[in-house]
Amino acid sequence: MVSKSKVHTIYRCQNCGTAGPKWMGRCPDCGQWNTFVEEREAPSAGRAPRRMTEFSSRVTRLDQVVAETQARRRTGVGEFDRILGGGVWPGSMVLLGGSPGIGKSTLMLQVADRLAGPGHPVLYVSGEESLGQVKGRAVRLGVKNDELLLLSETNLETILETVRQTEPKVLVLDSIQTVYKEDLAGAPGSVGQVRECAAELLHLAKGAGTTVFLLGHVTKEGDLAGPRVLEHIVDTVLYFETERQHTYRILRAFKNRFGPTNEIGVFEMTAQGLKEIENPSMLFLGEHPGDLPSGTAVLAAMEGTRPLLVEVQALVSRTLFGMPRRQMTGVDYNRAMFLIAVLDKRCGFPLESQDVYVNITGGLQVREPAADLGIAVAMAGASVEKPVSAKTVWLGEVGLGGEMRAVAQVSERLQEARKLGFDRAVIPRASQRGLTPPEGLKVLTASSLSEALGHAAFR
Ligand SMILES: Nc1ncnc2c1ncn2[C@@H]1O[C@H](COP(=O)(O)OP(=O)(O)OP(=O)(O)O)[C@@H](O)[C@H]1O
Ligand SMILES: [Mg+2]
């Protein structure tokens, strides 16, 4: 029996997992304030510290090792498969994070339904909802599947015992913050609990080859509630995000051991569940017959392997007192400052002394240099209050000297533009070499920002 005196108290940072004997206001490791929480640790009688994985091998020459090649299992939810790198890798552990109510359980129930089939049972464990509530959602989504097993449970031992009995190929745990291990002090969702439960589940994934999906909540700041350590343990981290007012949701791969990151998948939330949006560019473009409003331009950004046409809007107004205001949403702040300076010094648009606001519509983040020209055209248009044609797409990186630099994947971007009815594109001259533009799209080139702005025909 563990004597009372042996139970000791430690304090652990809820953000990064750093532990210490004393409470601290600020974590010395991650620098976050007020993240230390008291944890009571019962010493595990003689138990060896748990290893995260059970891999161990003799030293072997690389050419003698046989690579793991397994068939991925496609879910049939195209956007989801693409983000995972072409389907689910058997025995992998995937973390799906997102803010409350965004649709994590909905997406996973739909995916679980697609994955479950004869000889491929899927166990969906809900720690947050009763069986009746999960069934209610299943009815609404039209999910009917004999190979989909449900369990409403939060005790990890019971969950693992059920897994041993039912031998599912896929386990969904909704959510990791609700499960707890009995012999461990600390409330469900605390760092110690989350880490230990995840370690047990990782053991299951790597040992029995069961694919494990963990659902997790994300804090207001965008961090996964609970320890960051979870992001290191799992193979893949997916985030489900949205702008509050929009009905569509963006699924993003943040980390992926078996596929690309920076891919996005776009879904729309409907009463029948999440529907894939196959042509997301349509979402980010407004309806503008004729010219765009002044200060608006369309650019083609790459999100992973997919080109996405987005609208950038700018507003330039007189600075009333002192320092000009700059507010940038969806674009890199420093990049936008740089473009303001280049427009002012090289192209004669007096922006340095004015307030400048920039926004990417649809709540998207565009962070690549190829977006420079579109942003610059929007800012220049806002400054002179003149519109540009709604059927022109702007592409190019701008240098400090006001020169236009080549960008990658021009062909894919132009094809997407043509598909959506654009008939004119302005690109850097250096990107023209070897390029066969799609039929019906007139390509204009420029070697400097001034020349590109000439194609905008503002003045
Ligand atoms: N009848 C309905 N019609 C349309 N949309 C609905 C309906 N019922 C629920 N939804 C949508 O589903 C969302 C909730 O989905 P879900 O429960 O999957 O989210 P979650 O991320 O798992 O939430 P939690 O963090 O609470 O577990 C709601 O925000 C709403 O947008
Ligand atoms: Mg849920």
Secondary-structure arrangement, i.e. CATH architecture of the largest domain: 3-Layer(aba) Sandwich
Major beta sheet summary:
9 strands, mixed
| Small molecules in complex | adenosine-5'-triphosphate, magnesium ion
Biggest sheet, spatial arrangement of strands:
6-5-7-8-4-9-10-11-12
According to CATH, what is the topology of the largest domain? Rossmann fold
- State the shape: globular
Q: What proportion of the residues form beta strands (DSSP E)? A: 25-35%
Helix content percent band: 10-25%
Oligomeric description of these chains: single chain
Uncertain regions spanning at least 5 consecutive residues: 1-5
**Spatial separation of the terminal alpha carbons:** 86 Å
Number of domains: 3
Output the number of helix runs. 11
Count of distinct strands: 21
CATH superfamily of the largest domain: P-loop containing nucleotide triphosphate hydrolases
Q: Explain this structure to me?
A:
The chain is of the alpha/beta class. It folds into three domains: 7-41; 73-278, Rossmann fold (3-Layer(aba) Sandwich), CATH 3.40.50; 283-456, Ribosomal Protein S5, domain 2, CATH 3.30.230. It has eleven helices and 21 strands. It has helices at residues 78-84, 104-115, 131-141, 156-166, 191-208, 229-233, 281-284, 333-347, 372-384, 410-419, 449-456, and strands at 8-13, 19-20, 36-41, 93-98, 122-126, 148-152, 170-174, 211-217, 236-241, 248-256, 264-270, 273-276, 296-303, 306-318, 326-329, 354-360, 392-394, 397-398, 404-405, 424-428, 442-446. A nine-stranded mixed sheet has the order 6-5-7-8-4-9-10-11-12, sandwiched between helices. The chain is globular and about 70 Å long. The structure holds adenosine-5'-triphosphate and magnesium ion. Magnesium ion (MG) is lined by residues 104-105, 128, 174.
